[in-house]
## 1
Amino acid sequence: MTNVTGAGAAGQPASAVSPSPGAEPPAREPPPRSRRGSLLSREMLRERVLGLREGSIIVVTLVVAIYFAVNTSSFATSTNFKTLLPYFAPFAILGAGEVFVMILGEIDLSIGGTYLLAPYLFYKIATAGLPLVPSVLIALVACMAVGLINGFFVAIVGISSFVTTLGMLFALEGLTLIISHGTPVATPGAQVHATTHQVTHVVNGVHIQLPETVNHISTFAKVFGGGVYSELVWALMIVIVLQTVLTFTRWGLYTVAVGSNKLGAAEAGVRVRLVTVRNFILCATMGGLVGILEAVRSGTVQPDTAGANEILFYGIAAAVIGGTLLAGGSGTVVGALIGALFLGILHDGLTLQGVNANYLLFYLGLAIIVAMTVNIYVQRARRGAGSG
Amino acid sequence: MSDDVLRVEHISKRFGPVTALRDISLHLRRGEVLGLLGDNGAGKSTLIKIISGFQRQDSGEMFLHGRPYAPKSVDDARAKGIDTVYQDLALIDELSVYHNMFLRRERVHRPLPFLANREMKQQARSALDEIGINIPRIDVATARLSGGQRQAIAVARTVNGDADIILLDEPLAAMGAKEGSMILDLVARLKEEGRVSIIMILHNYVHVLQACDRVSMIQEGVIALDKPTAETSVEELTDIVVNEYRRAREAAHAE
């Protein structure tokens, strides 16, 4: 039960100030015990899961996963898992960056732009002669500059973030078309070499030599998106690091403070403009990173603005479905990961079921609305239950 | 004089054609609770903002513990021991009670940048207990607390931040009688401990006489009254205001 006026938490006497100084603090309420007396009773577990901000989206995603696993035999296989990864790892990374901006009550649409531009910058710098990894780093630094500009216009000039980042999105996409002349190019360092060698097999007691072809990619490519699990590892690492920053550092604390009460935070001494700019830099860089990973994975750098715009929406959707409020004030990076997983499972599962490509988008849209509705109702139930 | 922790002398402040403060001089003694009165728009909040470093005065000087005091910012004033509880409390609803109390002064696990939550929780709990504020759970979001508890936390934050002069801007606004008296009890307890000196902006004369050692009233940009509360009364305070009102009405009729 929530009792916002007067009594503070669960049934304590309504006094803000006790009559005598040094009075003993009231005993902590013991956790509710079920009739069975065990702490891991079904009620406790349900309260714990729902108590998590991510609880509702975890439940929704599990439901969807189980549905596909049951209905489609090819879903719950390791091959399919590998197919699923590129459907969700990029969105998880983009969503993670967006969470930091959205908690502030802002939004960053320009991640589509850094997604498109960063691999081209990488290409230009690498073909100009610089080694691969420094080229990636310089491209990412350019994305940080984009974030700085976004943050400048939002926090200092005072233009709404939607408008600022929309303008930046178009500008960056246009810039990419200009410098690329609209032509796709091969991603530096991502070329696949095939080597063929003779392998001896024993068939019916006879030794035969058969040629076998193996595809090699460079270590650089393996690390930066080309390896099968590369994007997944990046996504997990980034989600862990960013969730830790959000929950356990001052960066995260001040982000929530500014998003929850900008004026109050400023009065308390939080450097609001610094916090804002910092988060835009982070988000833009995530966009660029995903762009480079995808370019390495596919082997081509493509000036595909439609694809960039689509991926930008998926990234934002992952963050929102995962529990970060568009209005700001609270958010979760782990939730964005699960939101991305939800989107990926849906996309992948429907494709496996042989759903007509035309219907795919329609079902995806419906599923998102249904998932958000369930999310909201679970959150309301959670608030009503009064858990901390 | 040597007992003054804060002295402001001949402060003036104008905002364009409007003169908020003409010639304000007042002082605050160590361990004292000073009530600041004045009509709406009399300039009380402006004076508080100048003392707290939020604004700079046009002319006049301030002295803190006898030394010249000219804060460059709110942070600067805070570093020098002057902290303010604004009317909107500056609390972050989404954050826990203890995070609010430590805002901008968080403890971290040096050299790593991670918040030392357990340590802050313990210190917040003992700080609240010490000044006698009863808040059962300090790890809940501040949004869940009552108005009185929120005000108490906002005050506790300044004490926790080692402020020795606390400015309270209308702490009893929008508060019922019961919660209001709890805040006044808190102020009394802080005074008893002798660690802080307090300036409070209040509107209710009964509260002023009950909670403050001295009262200063701002009227027409100057201090119209500066007396120990023991030497004045609700009638005297009311008379000054009523006379001002009469004068204003006559001036309006004369036009």
## 2
Amino acid sequence: MENFSSINNIESYLTNKMSAAERKFFEAQLAKDPLLQNEVNFHKDVIEGLQDFRKRELKERLRNIEVKGGNSIGIKVTASVIAYR
Amino acid sequence: MKDSEIIEKIKRGDETALDYLYKKNYKMMVKMIVKNNGSEDEAKDIYQDALIVVWQKVQNHDFALTSKLSTFLYSICQNLWRKELERKARHSNEEVNKSEVLDIDKKERIEIVNKCIEEMGETCRKILTYYYFDNLSMNDIADKMGFANADTAKTKKYKCKQELDKKIKSLYTASDFLD
């Protein structure tokens, strides 16, 4: 008998790496096991936290990229920049 | 760079491909949003989110590009902007959207998790975020981190996660979330 609360099972479940059959089986166990629910919720918090962290990091990376002429997408501003030179 | 090269790079988790895509499509995407009632700041914000969605989608193992990459990005950008417009319209009609107010427990839990992630060593944090967000294989993680092989990456990932779990759990218990 497999151990449902094993970290590998919980991670596979939360990262969508289970087959449809495995998923169904796991969810049936989950429905009747409050301890397993607690454990799944815990790992969900951690994984979502890691995902949010990385998302913010990538966004920050993009925010720091200067796009040439990217500050103005209108013709007017570009024209006034030329006029200043 | 050809679309196929960009996709190969993204699949390996090479962020320079993201930078390249960002610059290449910037004007077209920002213009589309500004033309549709967005400010330039909103446009940038949504465009950045859209690129990160593309980054994640391409890294899915079953991803196959069925159009040009820029067309794909454009449609995601359009979708996100439409959702944002809908969200803004909803908010101007309702005073408080109760479903968006997180319960205090959840908020406190998120704070604990974030704190622990920030305090983690850089190596562990990179391995775990590459694994859980970027969906990189252990091989790619080993390459990016300069490890000998995928097994090293796997062992380290396991240890890092265990360490993080332990730390968060101890703080959760202190706050009495897990009875």
